[in-house]
Design brief:
By secondary structure, the protein is α/β, with parallel strands linked by helices. 41% of the residues lie in helices and 18% in strands. Strand 4, helix 2 and strand 5 form a beta-alpha-beta unit. The longest helix has 28 residues. About 14% of the residues have low confidence.
C-alpha cells in the first residue's frame, strides 16, 4: 500500500527537472525527439537513466545519469525536508543509488530553521524525520539508514570518520566545501561531493522562488484552513466571528480592512481599548490608581505614551494593566458584535493583538493569524514608530511569539510581500470561509 509520501513521489517523478552529478545539461528544441523514459519504482541499478523535464521557456531540457564509477559504503546528506517535494526526492534517490552501506541524513532542528520563510509553518522535526525514513524504506528497503536531527550546519558529516561522500544541491555546495574544510582540520578524509541541480518551478508566482522549494509550498498554504475549526456550541452561530490576531507591525489591521472590503464587519479592539478607560469610567479610575497621576494627559485622558514604557518594561505591571482593561474590552466587543448582527452582518472580524492572551478566542468561531518575520517587524516598527532597533525588539519580545499564535490559528496570512500578494491571500481565505459557512449551514439544516 502506498503512503502519502510515496504517492506524491510516483506522481511527480516524470515531471522532475534535474541535473545529476557528473552530467552535462543538454538543450534541444521542442521539435527534436525525446528519449523514451522508463522508470522502475525500486530499481536503483547503475544503468544510465534518462529523466525528462517539463518544457521551460520554449525549450525542453534533458539530463543523463551515466553509470557510477564507484559506490560508497557510507553516504550523507542534510536538509530541512519540510513538506517533501521533487527536489527532496531527487536528493534522497541519488543518495540511495550511491550508497552500499549506511545512509546518514541530517534533518535541521529548530535552531536552524528560524531564518526560513514562514518558518512557523515548517513541520515538526519528528514529522520530517519520519517522512524521510518512510521514503527511504520504500525506495531501498535493504539499506541501513540513520536519520537524525541536526542543530549545526555540519551534523554527522563534520565528525563521522566513516562517511565517504556527501550529496548536495547546487545551492548548498558551499556547505559541502565547509564540511570538507572542517574535516581536513580535524584530520579526517575529505568527502566526495555529488551535486544535484535545483528543480525549476514550472509557474512561480511573483513572490515565489524560481526553484521547487518547501518555502513555495508553505506560501501556498497561506489563506487555507490549516487546522479544522472546532465546533463551539456555547456561542451563537450568527454572526460568524473571526478572531484576527498578530504581533506588532504584522499588518493585522490592514488584513482586517481587506476583509471589510469583502463584506465583513470589523470590531477594532485597539479602539475599544481607548474607549475602555475614558475619563469617568471605572477602568480609568483603576488605571490612575494603579499606575499614578503621571499617566494622565492634560485633558484627563490616559497618556498611552507615558503608560506604555511603564508596563512594557515590567511584566508584572503589564499583567496588572491587562487585568484591569481586558474584561472591559471583551464586554464592549461582545456588544459591538451584537450590534453588527442586528445590522445583518453575517461575518464579524474581531481585530485584536492580544486575542489569545486575553482569552477572547472563546467567543470566536475561528482564529486567523497575520505573521511576518522578526527582522521585518523590527524594520517596520523603526520606520513607523521611530523606535530604536533595541526598543522595537523589546516590544516584540513582550508579546506572544509568532509560533505560539500560529499553533493556535486556523488560517495564516502573511503581509511580507507586495500588497497584491496579501490581497490574493485574503480573497482566497474569504472564499474558502464562505464555503465553510455554507457547509455548516447545510449540515445544520439537514439535522432539523
Amino acid at each position: 500500500m502506498q503512503t502519502a509520501t510515496s504517492k506524491v513521489f510516483y506522481k511527480c517523478r516524470t515531471q522532475i527537472a534535474t541535473i545529476i552529478h557528473s552530467t552535462k545539461l543538454l538543450r534541444c528544441n521542442n521539435n527534436q525527439s525525446s528519449t523514451t523514459c522508463k522508470f522502475a519504482t525500486r530499481n536503483l541499478s547503475n544503468k544510465t537513466d534518462f529523466l525528462s523535464a517539463k518544457s521551460i521557456s520554449g525549450a525542453r531540457y534533458y539530463c543523463t545519469m551515466p553509470p557510477t564509477k564507484g559506490l560508497y559504503q557510507n553516504v550523507c546528506l542534510g536538509g530541512t525536508f519540510d513538506r517533501m517535494h521533487e527536489g527532496h526526492f531527487l536528493l534522497l534517490r541519488e543518495s540511495c543509488r550511491l550508497c552500499e552501506g549506511t545512509l546518514t541524513v541530517g534533518v535541521t532542528d529548530l535552531s536552524m530553521i528560524q531564518s526560513k520563510i514562514l518558518c512557523e509553518l515548517i513541520e515538526p522535526v519528528e514529522v520530517r524525520i519520519e517522512n524521510v525514513r518512510q521514503f527511504l524504506r520504500e525506495t531501498k528497503p535493504t539499506m541501513e539508514t540513520d536519520v537524525v536531527p541536526i542543530s549545526d550546519p555540519l551534523g554527522p558529516a563534520g565528525w563521522n570518520p566513516d562517511i565517504q561522500a556527501i550529496v548536495v544541491s547546487t545551492e548548498t555546495k558551499k556547505g559541502a566545501d565547509f564540511v570538507n574544510e572542517t574535516r581536513k582540520k580535524k584530520g579526517l578524509n575529505e568527502l566526495a561531493v555529488h551535486i544535484i541541480d535545483l528543480v525549476p518551478e514550472p509557474s512561480p508566482s511573483s513572490s515565489e522562488e524560481s526553484k521547487v522549494s518547501s518555502s513555495n509550498v508553505r506560501q501556498r498554504l497561506l489563506g487555507t484552513l490549516l487546522r479544522p475549526v472546532q465546533p463551539k456550541p456555547d456561542i451563537r452561530s450568527y454572526p460568524y466571528v473571526l478572531g484576527l490576531t498578530g504581533g506588532i507591525a504584522s499588518g493585522k489591521t490592514a488584513v482586517a480592512r481587506r476583509l471589510q472590503g469583502l463584506g465583513a464587519a470589523v470590531v477594532d479592539c485597539d479602539k475599544l481599548g481607548h474607549k475602555a478607560y475614558e475619563p469617568g469610567t471605572t477602568t480609568h479610575e483603576q488605571v490612575v490608581e494603579t499606575f499614578g497621576q503621571d499617566v494622565l494627559a492634560e485633558d484627563g485622558t490616559i497618556n498611552r505614551k507615558v503608560l506604555g514604557p511603564k508596563v512594557f518594561a515590567d511584566k508584572a505591571k503589564l499583567q496588572a494593566l491587562n487585568n484591569i482593561v481586558w474584561p472591559e474590552i471583551a464586554r464592549l466587543a461582545k456588544a459591538e458584535i451584537a450590534t453588527h448582527a442586528e445590522a445583518g452582518k453575517s461575518v464579524v472580524v474581531l481585530d485584536a493583538a492580544v486575542l489569545l492572551e486575553a482569552g477572547w478566542e472563546s467567543f470566536c468561531h475561528e482564529i486567523w493569524v497575520s505573521v511576518i518575520p522578526r527582522k521585518e517587524a523590527i524594520k517596520r516598527i523603526v520606520d513607523r514608530n521611530k523606535f530604536t532597533e533595541e526598543d522595537a525588539a523589546r516590544r516584540i519580545d513582550s508579546q506572544m511569539s509568532n509560533q505560539e499564535r500560529v499553533d493556535s490559528g486556523n488560517v495564516i496570512i502573511s503581509t511580507l510581500w507586495e500588497p497584491e500578494v496579501t490581497q490574493k491571500q485574503v480573497e482566497k481565505a474569504w472564499s474558502l470561509l464562505q464555503d465553510r459557512i455554507q457547509q455548516t449551514a447545510e449540515k445544520g439544516a439537514s439535522q432539523l
